[in-house]
Amino acid sequence: MDKQMTGAISTMERRKFLATLPFLAAAPLLVFSQSEEEKKKPLTAIMKADEWEQVKQSPMAMELEEYFGHGYSCAESLWLTALRRMKKPEELVWTAGAFGGGMGQKDICGFLSAGLMAIGTAAGQLKMPRPEARKVCSREAKAYWQWFQPLSPIHCAEIRPPGSSGDICRRLGHICATKVNQVIDAMAGA
User: Fold this and answer.
1) Out of 5, 40, 47, 186, which residue is the most buried by the measure of CB atoms under 10 Å away?
2) CB half-sphere exposure, 115, CA atoms < 13 A
3) Neighbours of 185 (CB within 10 A)
4) What letters, b where the CB count within 10 A reaches 16 and e where it falls short, cover 63-83?
């Protein structure tokens, strides 16, 4: 082989080698890291027995596991399960898009915000004059807020401090989904 041909081959092989470096660097992570699914504890391991008994009977709470942590924020996951329960268009999930992670600022919890959104939507479906439906909405929203306060702080920064497990939010989300499920079902029966 002539010198020019040898130089072209070594340049090509060097380029191929350099192109594989990102994959080589990531290989140990791909091989040795567990997926999020593998790291997740079962719900029964992160809840008290009485909480689990209620959660497992809630269609919304059981469905929440499909969404929360799988591309949907806290607010979006609870809101999506509520939309599905109320037979509303699922693309409305985007109305909760800015509420996740405490409105993106570690402020008001997305499970609290989405629960209130669901209660408001359920009130809008009541077969009664708006002033009466508004009273029902206010009463149920106040009751949900009061129910939430002893359960958890309302601010994400306090609920899940840096370095704490995401299981804190998983547990809270399932408990909130159970409560919202109960409230909107009761409102639908009113």
Assistant:
1) 47
2) 29
3) 15
4) bbbebbbeebbbbbbbbbbbb
Q: 132 vs 118, 125, 136, CA distance in Å? A: 18, 12, 6
Backbone angles phi, psi at 82, to 5 degrees: -70, -40
- 119 near 140, Cβ under 8 Å? yes
Residue 166 is part of which domain span?
Answer: 41-189
Q: Do 88 and 120 form a contact (C-beta atoms < 8 A)?
A: no
What single letter denotes the amino acid at residue 34? Q
Query: How is the chain split among helix, strand and coil, in percent rounded to 5?
Result: 75, 0, 20
pTM (predicted TM-score): 0.78
One domain, residues 86 and 168: yes
Give whole-number Cα distances, 43 to 3, 27, 162, in Å. Answer: 66, 31, 22
Number of domains in the chain: 2
pLDDT along the chain (190 residues), means of 10: 54 56 43 47 91 95 95 97 97 95 94 98 97 97 98 95 93 97 92
Residue that has been written with the tokens 């409105």 in this structure: 103
Contact 126, 100 (CB under 8 A): no
